[in-house]
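The freezer alarm interrupted the setup, so I double-checked each line after restarting. Inputs confirmed:
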Amino acid sequence: MSDSPLRPRATGRTTLADVARDAGVSPITVSRALRGERAVDPALVERVRLSAHKLGYVPDPAARALASRRSSQVVVLVPLLSNQLFVDLLEAAQGTLRAAGYQTLVGITHYDAAEEEQLLRELLLHRPAGLLITGWQHSQGTRQLLAASEIPCVHLMELEPAGTGGDTGTAPGRHCVGFSQADAAAALTEHLLQRGRRRIAFAAAQLDARTLQRLEGWRLRLQREGLHEPALEWLDPSPSSMALGGDMFARIRSEAPEVDAIFFNNDDLAHGALLQALRLQVQVPQQVAVVGFNDLPGSDQTLPPLTTVRTPRADIGRQAAQRLLALLRGEPVTPRALDVGYELVVRASS
Amino acid sequence: MSDSPLRPRATGRTTLADVARDAGVSPITVSRALRGERAVDPALVERVRLSAHKLGYVPDPAARALASRRSSQVVVLVPLLSNQLFVDLLEAAQGTLRAAGYQTLVGITHYDAAEEEQLLRELLLHRPAGLLITGWQHSQGTRQLLAASEIPCVHLMELEPAGTGGDTGTAPGRHCVGFSQADAAAALTEHLLQRGRRRIAFAAAQLDARTLQRLEGWRLRLQREGLHEPALEWLDPSPSSMALGGDMFARIRSEAPEVDAIFFNNDDLAHGALLQALRLQVQVPQQVAVVGFNDLPGSDQTLPPLTTVRTPRADIGRQAAQRLLALLRGEPVTPRALDVGYELVVRASS
DNA sequence: CTGAAAGCGCTTACAG
DNA sequence: CTGAAAGCGCTTACAG
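Predicted 3D structure, all chains:
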């Protein structure tokens, strides 16, 4: 019964060749027909489709990646997943990519540029079709890797860094989807000013790039009013948490009792601050207004409900993925920067 | 200058063949030496290592997957990422897998068995080396896929379903790492009983399998005391949230004022309940005790701090990944079920 | 312990 | 619009 000795490793998998045989065409034609490549007779396409469906054919991603030197995977780099912001971002991006047949390879950088570079280096070995990367701040090595790989890439959360020339920028492929962190912070500050607050503190943790952009937005707005002073800045490089927010609130109250509003850089800090206010029996917003940033789950539940900025992270994830898909199809994508805006959510804490 | 006509597609990538040439051995020997396969002269291994390092050689995952029919990717299926529980689980598993050279392909099932099956079907096309799957409850199709794929798999969070015969079970490869959800719930209930509570309500959302196991643990413990009655069960199939917890608390207070303790199935429900208690000016724990489950971030910050069960999810992720790695190396792993336990965290809310 | 041959299942690049 | 040939970069299975 021994057949051809040339088949020691039959896998049983239905291959392109099987479909080609069934449809009576060459494998290349099947490949082209199934990928929807131009220049295939519509009648043939239909015939191939039927055969493929009949045989239950599914392309082998590994073979495809090896032959084409491009996989069906997209790398998504986020700082962490313990902030719901990035979970929403990731889920939206992944959903969009998956619908288009791409898998997501998630890398968590922990706000560490060196770790980001290492992750990227590892993941690039898999020849991802595209990249989605949080922010603009990367190590020299990361930037070189990105440039050398020539893989389509969309940056998330922020707009093009100021001073790069905007639409006329010459750097190829510097696409991004986000909003102006500084503008959003300025708008929130503006809201507090309009409510009559004059001594507005800024309290932040982590001190990542977007935090510093918000700091800048707050600072510039206050400076315009002649109300800024360094003593109003409360910056702590440790990770953001409710406990830290509570500590900061207590310190600000005791060390700067004249402060009449506190802008917390992230909602979790504000949540902790509001609980601390209850403990210390400080009236919010009567004695001091408290606002946050991001509109995380629970911010409508706090006592009092929290005024904050709603960041459209799901929208960012979705739109960034769509732009990446367009780039992968070779379509022109302009302008490079997409501003999805933000929304001020005024509740009772301010 | 035209060289061999047999190289229309040189990629510039350093390949096994390059290393083999440099080391003066055959490509197969390089392959074996680099993978640490038995039966290679240690001196040759060293020589190959040096050449590989010198040339900056990194294996091509696609070629490897195609030839070996097994990738360096592990699929991890979790219900969602908006519960910090699963983020911790995922991060720990991913960290362990990454250190061993595996990438993680995350699938989010949204507690939907059909979606889980569809996801698995898609991800299986990538010939993952292994699988990490939350829970034991899967569709018929999922179970068939798992069995047919013959890919090593470790289930997360729960112990072997009761009644399957324990260690002597014949089903091959049914590995798991977790703890007894029912026991943990019973222990928490026991704590409330010891505090003198007699009318202990159970309030839950989502109603996934683990929730129902906790319900059962609570129920059995109360039945043993003759204290169980159906009216104490408050079950809502909608997703868990702080807002829902607040609503449930208000309803329980108004419809069952005799209840002297409420066991919320997840901390986020309890967080919402505690805020509602503040609004309604209900004294916790004096008028009613409130406990949660999971010890999520913030549970030590609430007013009052929340009594809960700390679930060792990072440990589960790490250990499950380690077991999977052992299975991939072909090592025997016994017993099939690993119980990592849980920890009662008593704070002021009970 | 080492290797020559073949093949994994696709796509590229070149013809026609 | 279609195809024959070659190759992507690795590992399997068989010898020796």
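Quick read of the result. Chain A is about 45% helix and 15% strand.
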